[in-house]
Amino acid sequence: xxxxxxxxxxxxxxxxxxxxxxxxxxxxxxxxxxxxxxxxxxxxxxxxxxxxxxxxxxxxxxxxxxxxxxxxxxxxxxxxxxxxxxxxxxxxxxxxxxxxxxxxxxxxxxxxxxxxxxxxxxxxxxxxxxxxxxxxxxxxxxxxxxxxxxxxxxxxxxxxxxxxxxxxxxxxxxxxxxxxxxxxxxxxxxxxxxxxxxxxxxxxxxxxxxxxxxxxxxxxxxxxxxxxxxxxxxxxxxxxxxxxxxxxxxxxxxxxxxxxxxxxxxxxxxxxxxxxxxxxxxxxxxxxxxxxxxxxxxxxxxxxxxxxxxxxxxxxxxxxxxxxxxxxxxxxxxxxxxxxxxxxxxxxxxxxxxxxxxxxxxxxxxxxxxxxxxxxxxxxxxxxxxxxxxxxxxxxxxxxxxxxxxxxxxxxxxxxxxxxxxxxxxxxxxxxxxxxxxxxxxxxxxxxx
Length: 449
What we know:
CATH topology of the domain at 1-247: Pectate Lyase C-like
Oligomer: single chain
Helix content: under 10%
Largest sheet: 19 strands, mixed
Strand content: over 45%
Protein name: galacturonan 1,4-alpha-galacturonidase
Signal peptide: 1-19
Number of strands: 28
Number of helices: 5
Enzyme class: hydrolase
GO cellular component, one term: extracellular region
Keywords: Carbohydrate metabolism, Cell wall biogenesis/degradation, Disulfide bond, Glycoprotein, Glycosidase, Hydrolase, Polysaccharide degradation, Secreted, Signal
Shape: globular
C-alpha cells in the first residue's frame, strides 16, 4: 500500500493544475530549458510559472495575474503556444527580473461597455489602457516573428468609432509604465483596439522584432479611415528607447514620440498607414514638450487605401506637428498654447510610397474650428533637423512642406540627397513658411528630377 503522504502530494498537484488556478510552478532546472527562445539572457530565476487557459471563452486574466504574483521576481512566466487566452478584465503586472513569454495569444474580448468603463486611465489626452506592465529588468517575448502576442479584436472598436478620432474609452493594448531595462521582442499585435504600445515614465526600453496589423474589414469604411488612431507606439517622458525591425499596418502614426522623449533610436521600420510623427505637441499650456536626440534610419512609409474598405491617408514619412498657440476646448479634442522644442533629430534613408509629403512640419494643428484663426501663434520650436537620402514618390506635387509659425520660425533644417517624384505629374516642390536657414534645398522651388 502506498503511504498517505504520496496521496497528499498527488492531490496537491491536481489542485494546482485543475483547480481555480491552472498555474504550474517549476524550479530553475525547467526554466533554463527555455533559453533558445531569445538571444536575451534569462533571469537568474527561482521559479517558472506555466499557465494554460481554461478554454471555452472563460476569462483567463485572473489566473495570469495570479501567476505574475507568484512569479513576480527572479522568474520565468510562460503562456505556451498554441493556446488562446481569453482576457475579459484589465491587467496590471508588477515584475522584477522576469521573463514573460506570451507564446500563445491574449485575446481581449470585444466587450466595449466593460472596457470603456473599466480600463485604466492614462494621463495623456484622458486616454485608457487595457494592460499595464510595470517593472525593471523585464523581457516580454512572443517567441518568434508573427507568433505570440495580442489579439485586440479591434474591429469592434473601429466600427464603433467609424473614423472618429480619440473616442473616449478605446483602450491602448499594452502600456509600459514606470519601468526600466525592458525588452519586448518578437511580439505581435493583431487588430489592436487603439494605440498598440504606450511607453510612459520609463528608461532603457527596446521594442525589437514587432509585428502590428490593424486592418479594417468593415465595408462601411467605404474609402474612409475606419482604422483611425491605430498607432504603433506612443511615448511620454521616456529616455533611451529603441524601436527596431518593425512591420506595422495601421491607420495613424507608426511611431509618435510625445512630450519629454529623449535619446530615441528608430531602425529598420516598414510602416503602412502611418509615418513617424513627432507629436502632437504643445497641447497643454502648463506642460512644455521636449523631444531631443533622435536617430532614425532605414524607414519606409507607405499609404494603402482600399476603395471598398478604406484606410489612412498618410501625411508624411517624417511629420512634425504642434498645436496652435491659443488654447481652446478640453483634451483630447481641445488644447493648444503649449511650448517646448524638438531638436537634434536625424533621418537617414527615408523612403515614401504615395504619402502626402515625404517630410512635413505643421505648426497649425488644432481640433476646435476657431483655432484655424491662430495658425501663426505656436511658440513650440522645431530646429536642428537633418535628413539625408530621402526618396520615393508622393501623392501630390508637394514633397516637402515646412509650415512654421511667425511666432517661432523653424531653424537650421538640413535636407540632402532628396529624390522625390509625384504620382500626378512627376515633378515635386518644396514649400516653406517662416523657415530660417534651410540647407541642401531652397524654399519654394521645384525639386530636380
